[in-house]
Amino acid sequence: MFERVLIANRGEIACRVIRTCRRLGIHTIAVYSEADKDAQHVRLADEAWPIGGPRPAESYLRGDAILEVAKTSGTQAVHPGYGFLSENTAFARACMEAGVTFIGPRPESIDAMGSKAAAKALMEQHSVPLVPGYHGDNQDTDVLAEQARKTGFPLMIKAAAGGGGKGMRIVRTEKEFTDALASAQREAASSFGDTRVILERYVEHPRHIEFQVFGDTHGNVIHLNERECSAQRRYQKVLEETPSPFLNAERRNAMGEAAVAAAKAVNYVGAGTVEFIVAQDGTFYFMEMNTRLQVEHPVTEETLGLDLVEWQLRVAAGEPLPLRQDEVQAHGHAIEVRLYAEDPDQNFLPGSGKLRRLRLPAPSRHVRLDGGVIEGDAVTIFYDPMIAKLIVYDADRTQALQRLREALAECEIVGPKSNVAFLERLTRHPVVIEGHIDTGYLDRHLDEFLTGDASPSEHVLFAAATAALLHDERAVVAGAASSSDPHSPWSRADAWRVGHAGKRIVALSLREQRYEIEAHGHDGDYQLQHASAQCEVRGARFDGDALSARFDGQGIRFAVHADPERISLHDANGQRHAFARAAAFAWESKEGSGGDQIVAPMPGRVVLVKARAGDTVEVGQEVLVMEAMKMELALKAPRAGTIESVSATQGEFVEADAVLVRFAS
Predict the structure, then answer these.
(1) Residue 502 and which of 74, 266, 490, 578 are 20 to 30 A apart at CA?
(2) Any idea where the ATP-grasp domain is (predicted)?
(3) C-alpha 130: how far from its chain's center?
């Protein structure tokens, strides 16, 4: 086994690899960019070395800088994690030439599967089922358009060197093809430095099921069962689970055999994933093979009781696979979701900033957290905005889903906006509960999973106000206890007045709407009023996690988090309501930029400017395209009118809230 391993990655996966190495007694070496000098993987590793500027191209994509650290630090092996250089043939080969073991497949295997087009040609030779389409070398636009007509619509354009949903577009009609192709090629060039694409017939309402495969240097290749990843938004996985609720034993065996055949076709060594697109009738087609560990590998680990990073290390060190195919035994059900700094109600706009509060469920046999940040850390604009992976396990799927709901209810993220509430709605949706979701369902029915503009019920408002009152009263009493006069009547927060019970205003805001609740009473007994609605609260108790009280005589319990800045609670349906605390007697409405300008929603690079000063545009017309946090953002006209000025240029890096376009008055 290796004694010194360098992790050529960052964030959650770097921390994940470090944990296994530490358990095995392996000395870990981290590398970091300027933006990551205080990151958790830097703090967890036994030693850490700087490799360049904040952008990936200046640091984590610099194989030369990483190998220089490997040489200087006495590294024996490099673990590439996933993303960055994990599927880079040149880097894998450079490691070998430098006498450093690359913990991954041979360069030839990466080459064979790194191009979707080449992979499909190879799979065709080994009788692995393929979706009809075009994966040829001729990338002339006219040729691609002709092949698209032959393939038929709807079809999928995919970046040939791609992965992670980048450079993918669905095209339903011939007239959409040219623009979609250009957009996919731009994204492919930005993400992979390669504009080549393949075309595939689009399978309607497909499922995405992938098989974990593992090979060793002794010629053994096995699969470790499937993961269903059909819950996707814009080809990005949202929820992953194993076993698949769709597969029966016969389908599982057939797909497992095809996955092993695909791996054997390239003499595969190490961890890999063979991905299939599955039609509603159970027919399956090879989609691609990822020659690395996958983000969702923990669900496989939880059901098999294995550590796949340990397997990677042992196989790379020349050991045979620890199990034969007939020894792979799965138990229970596991589900993973990814907690992201993003705003689902603003088209999942990625967020950045300091995590002022990060409260996650306690790890247990049923709950696992794989993260790369802690409270106080910043989510930076330069990398993927993932905060943590939340993995749950239980005896069956129904119980695992309930574990997931309970775990999500315990999550509280303050700072950048997060997708926690979106995930909570997802886990309660019938299409997920019944296991019927397909890869396009979220995109077709996204409004079913978003907050919307619905106002909170009076019950929710009164519960939030009660939690705020109890929290504030407790805080005042605690403050008085540490003061020079702990028994002073002026230390009470009950608004008592001579001759009457006094009145307090609890002011809350939700989605820029202000709510004022008038309160009389103290110590858990209150008379509350909002507009014309009234409520008598009796026996209220708040233990920091839950509020229980009798509301107009009915006993109700709410899961609640409260602090001086916000009140977050779940109603009886599991719906999350995150109120901001507001000043009782002051209110300033948030002023937007109005309809006379387009501003950058976040820091990023302008990749396309589609209008000039003097142009007349329609409302909703695409004016600019930005790239930020590994995704393209289309900036559209807020109203119809004439453009007065465009201050953005193609290739320019702009800061958040920078005015890019102004409209004439």
Answers:
(1) 578
(2) 120-317
(3) 29
